[in-house]
Structures are given as structure tokens and as C-alpha cells.
Design goal:
The complex is a heterodimer of chains A (183) and B (320). Helices cover 56% and strands 0% of the residues of chain A. Chain A has helices spanning 8-17, 29-32, 44-53, 56-60, 64-67, 73-77, 84-98, 105-121, 126-137, 144-152, 166-177. In chain A, helix 1 crosses helix 7 (84-98) and helix 8 (105-121) crosses helix 11. Chain A starts with 7 loop residues before the first helix and ends in a 6-residue tail after the last helix. The model of chain A has no long low-confidence stretch (mean pLDDT 91). Chain B is 41% helix and 10% strand. Chain B has helices at 19-31, 47-53, 55-72, 81-96, 98-108, 121-129, 131-134, 172-179, 203-219, 230-238, 258-265, 271-276, 283-288, and strands at residues 4-9, 34-38, 76-78, 118-120, 146-150, 183-184, 224-227, 255-257. In chain B, helix 1 packs across helix 11 (258-265), helix 2 (47-53) packs across helix 3 (55-72) and helix 3 packs across helix 4. Chain B is globular and about 60 Å long. Chain B starts with a strand and ends in a 32-residue tail after the last helix. In chain B, 57% of the residues are buried.
């Protein structure tokens, strides 16, 4: 077992993700099977290496961590058993906490809209989600044609569905705001 | 057949844009004697957005559902691949971390430690109802229909939570479709990611993934794509190239849920209603293959009874 830790960043991401980032030996299998690699500024195996090297600013500001769709092909195939997608989760969370401007603001706006909707209703209502995302990302005029098709096909329901015990949902969100258990 | 009884987690999509998945799952469950009891007052699992941005939230949101499932006392069945994945992941974390479970119990007011199984409906149908168990209820074969089975990511990955027979080359859906008479086309993308979580925020990237999938399905000779994930279905139907303002489709290949295909073969009422809510209308394709979408009403409760003469199909239809 490899016991040498390369950098403080590596140590903190290992702690946060529960994954042995130090075990990555750059075989590149994660990048080879990544469906979204074509859109990334750093290939996944390079992100792993930069975490080992402690290149915090580069890693937390790259687009890769936000373009990873968490399909987990990398995690399923890593010969060293590293859950690479889990490492990406840890990097996303670290990036948000660091205050570094995320490379993909719209992706972050989507996640914020999604969680805000759950906080409000307890469930995800697609029209509410889309409206919240449009407001946050200021992409008001995207997908109008699609919206018309969705309306016609009955994909957009008039009444949002709510969880009755919304107080429990609020307690869950307040708890998570007080701090993640992994820090 | 032994009556099966599960708590059922419908998931947000199945009450919204993927209503036809929820309706067909419920109808198929009822027809095959799989009791699906909706979890009372369930909440959203948090999906990708929670685990990507807030680790604690990604456990705490499913934890409330697990606490509800614990009180209900039955195994839990999900139909959405993302819900399935998040519920399984949270259960593993909670059952391994007593401190976290205790903290969440304090917030939720009841224990989130769920000892029951969390399963996908496809797994229940294949491994518990089994194909021979489905055979007596088949009303029509689906010969003439060509399809590629599309599993996507979260039914098979991570390997710990794989509900199919293989992580890299699952065949459960293949076998179900083949059993129903569908010609299953071989293709290399059955577990490729469609980019669902980026569908709204990076449609430019997602379009490429979706078009690759369609092109591969066409190349394989398929007339439709059959999936078990509402995110995949929504993404494939809505995110082809030229999506934006002028919404016109390049690929007219319908995307269907496995429960809809099964419902058609079982001759369930309501199939036409499910099918018509798809953005890419599958009705012409299905009617061209000679499949009936308006079956004669079956006797109430008939599907639940054990056939009078075992081994004979009550519908009298050859099932191939």
C-alpha cells in the first residue's frame, strides 16, 4: 500500500472523498472511457495527477470537475479501485467552498436551482426547475421551441407537487448548511 | 405465482415529464402481481445536484425516504435509475456510519437505518417474477419490432449497486425484449452516458452524446431505443441537434420505457395514452409492426389469478 502523501490538497481530497488519490499511476483508463472528455480542459487522469501535485488553483478552477456527469465509467474501470467520480464530487465541493469562481457557472446555477426547488417543495418540479435555472443563469430565451413541444405533449404539469412534511425538508437543509460531516 | 409486495418510490420524473413511465410501471406491476405500495409523502432524492455539491445533503435527502421505508417494513423498489442509485448509496453510507445515522435520526425524528433491500423494477421482473412467470400473461408477441436496449449509467454503475447481470455488458433488458418477440439489435453503446445532468446547462455537449447514441442505434438497424431511465429518455427525446428555438428532429427513432413495451405485450389498457405523450411519437412505428394498442378489456383481476391450466397461455398467443 502506498503511504506517502504528496501534497496537502491530496490529503484533504482523500479525506473528503474517502478515496486513495495517491494510488493513481496515470494509466489513463478514466480519460479513455470518459464520454465528456471531448469538452474538458483537463483530462480526468491529469486532474488526478494535479491533485497529487497539490495544484489547487488549477484543479479547483478547471472545467473538468463541472463537466463530469458522474456516469462512473471511470470508477468502474480504475485498476486501482479509485472512485474517480467520487473524487470529482469532492473537488466540486472543495471548489464551491474555496470561493474560486467555477469554470462552468451555468452548471453550478443548474445545481443551485435544483436544490432550491427541493428546499421549497420537497420534490423536483421540472417547470419550476427550468424557470429557476433560466433566472439564475439568465438564459431566458433558450429552449423556447422545446417548451412549446413539452406543453403540447402534457409534459408540463400545472400544479407543482409538494411534500406534506416540508418542515422535515427544511431541517435537512439547515443541518447540511451547518457543515458537512466529512470535514 | 406468489404475490410480491414492495414499498414503491416513484421519483419526481414519474409524476412529471416521465408520467408514462410511472403509469406503465404501476400497470405492469398490477398485471404481474407485483404489489407496489407508494411510500407515503416521499421526497426528492437530491439526484446529481446534491452529491455533486453537498455531501451531507446527498445522504440526508434519501435518508428521509429510507426512514419512511423502514417504518413501512417492506423492501423498496424504484423505477428511476438515479433515485435507485442515490437511495442505495445513502443506505450504504448510513448502515456503515452509526454516528451519521444517529445525527440524521435526530433531524428526521426516526431512524434512517433501512435493513431491507433497495431494488430496481427491472431486477424484480427479471429475477423474481422471471420470464417464465411473465409468459402466462402475454397477450401478443412483438415480432417485427427492432430495438436497441439502452441501460445508461446508473442501473449498472457503480458495480456495487449494479442491478443487472453485468457491469460492462448487461443483458437483462436484452433478454426481456427478446422474450417478448422483439428483435434485439447489437450495439456498442448500451451503457454509455447520455449526459443527463448537463442537459439544461451544457446542451451543446449533450447534443453530441445524444446524437452519437441515435446514430449508433440507426447503424445497428434499430427502430426504437428501449430504456429504464427517465433521465436518459427525456434527454434523448429533447436533446437532439437543432433543439433550440426551431425544434425539429433529425432522428425520428422513438425512445420507449421497458415497462411500456412490456405493457403492450401484456395487452394492458392505457398503452396508447402512455405512448402518445412521447415527444417522438412511437405509435406509427408500433402500428406498422401490427401490434394492437387497443386491447379488448380483460376481466377484472384476471391477471392476478393462477391460470386454470398451467403451461397454456390464456391469451392464446404464441410468445416465441
Amino acid at each position: 500500500m502506498i503511504t506517502c502523501v504528496n501534497s496537502r490538497l491530496e490529503e484533504s481530497i482523500e479525506q473528503r472523498s474517502g478515496q486513495l488519490v495517491r494510488a493513481c499511476y496515470q494509466c489513463g483508463k478514466c480519460s479513455a472511457g470518459c464520454q465528456l472528455a471531448f469538452g474538458m480542459d483537463l483530462l480526468p487522469h491529469r486532474v488526478m495527477k494535479l491533485v497529487q501535485y497539490g495544484q489547487e488553483a488549477r484543479v479547483l478552477s478547471c472545467s473538468t470537475i463541472w463537466l463530469c456527469a458522474s456516469c462512473e465509467a471511470c470508477s468502474a474501470r480504475c485498476p486501482n479501485g479509485i472512485d474517480v467520480a467520487g473524487v470529482m464530487d469532492a473537488l466540486r465541493q472543495a471548489s464551491l467552498e474555496s470561493g474560486i469562481a467555477p469554470a462552468q457557472r451555468d452548471v453550478v446555477a443548474f445545481h443551485r436551482s435544483f436544490l432550491a426547488g427541493i428546499r421549497l417543495a420537497g420534490r423536483t418540479n421540472e417547470p419550476v426547475l427550468i424557470a429557476a435555472y433560466k433566472a439564475l443563469s439568465r438564459r431566458l430565451f433558450d429552449d423556447l421551441g422545446l417548451g412549446v413541444v413539452m406543453l403540447r405533449k402534457g409534459k408540463i404539469k400545472a400544479m407543482p407537487r409538494l411534500v406534506q412534511d416540508r418542515d422535515a425538508i427544511r431541517r435537512i437543509f439547515r443541518m447540511s448548511e451547518r457543515g458537512s460531516n466529512r470535514q | 405465482m406468489k404475490e410480491l409486495s414492495f414499498s414503491y418510490f416513484p421519483g419526481c420524473s414519474q409524476t412529471g415529464s416521465a408520467a408514462e413511465f410511472g403509469l406503465s410501471a404501476a400497470a405492469v406491476g398490477a398485471a404481474l402481481g407485483v404489489g407496489l405500495h407508494e411510500l407515503p409523502d416521499w421526497n426528492c432524492c437530491g439526484a446529481s445536484s446534491a452529491h455533486m455539491t453537498d455531501d451531507l445533503l446527498s445522504v440526508a435527502l434519501p435518508a428521509r425516504n429510507l426512514a419512511l421505508a423502514r417504518s413501512a417494513g417492506r423492501d423498496l423498489v424504484a423505477v428511476c435509475a438515479a433515485c435507485y442509485s442515490r437511495l442505495r448509496s445513502a443506505r450504504a453510507r448510513l448502515n456503515a456510519d452509526a454516528g451519521l445515522a444517529a445525527r440524521l435520526e435526530e433531524v428526521l425524528g426516526s431512524s434512517p437505518v433501512f435493513e431491507g433491500e433497495i431494488r430496481h423494477l427491472l431486477d424484480v421482473l427479471i429475477n423474481q417474477v422471471t420470464l417464465p412467470g411473465i409468459r402466462p400473461w402475454l397477450r401478443q408477441g412483438l415480432e417485427g419490432l427492432k430495438a436497441v436496449p439502452y441501460y445508461g449509467c446508473l442501473l449498472v454503475r457503480p458495480p456495487r449497486d449494479c442491478c443487472c447481470d453485468s457491469v460492462e455488458n448487461p443483458t437483462d433488458l436484452d433478454r426481456l425484449l427478446g422474450f417478448l418477440g422483439v428483435e434485439v439489435c447489437r450495439w456498442p453503446r448500451k451503457t454509455d452516458c447520455c449526459g443527463g445532468s448537463l442537459s439544461l446547462s451544457r446542451p451543446d455537449l449533450v447534443e453530441k452524446l445524444v446524437n452519437d447514441l441515435f446514430e449508433s442505434a440507426v447503424e445497428a438497424g434499430a427502430g426504437c431505443i428501449v430504456t429504464a431511465c427517465p433521465m436518459c429518455a427525456a434527454n434523448l427525446e429533447m436533446r437532439q441537434k437543432q433543439g433550440r428555438l426551431g425544434f425539429s428532429l433529425v432522428h425520428r427513432i422513438p425512445v420507449l420505457y421497458f415497462t411500456e413495451i412490456l405493457g403492450i405485450a401484456l395487452g394492458l389498457s392505457g398503452t396508447r395514452h402512455w405512448l402518445e405523450s412521447h415527444i417522438i411519437n412511437p405509435v406509427p412505428l408500433l402500428e406498422a409492426t401490427g401490434v394492437s394498442l387497443d386491447p379488448e378489456p380483460r376481466r377484472a383481476g384476471a391477471a392476478r389469478k393462477v391460470p386454470a391450466r398451467p403451461g397454456r397461455d390464456p391469451g392464446g398467443v404464441a410468445t416465441g
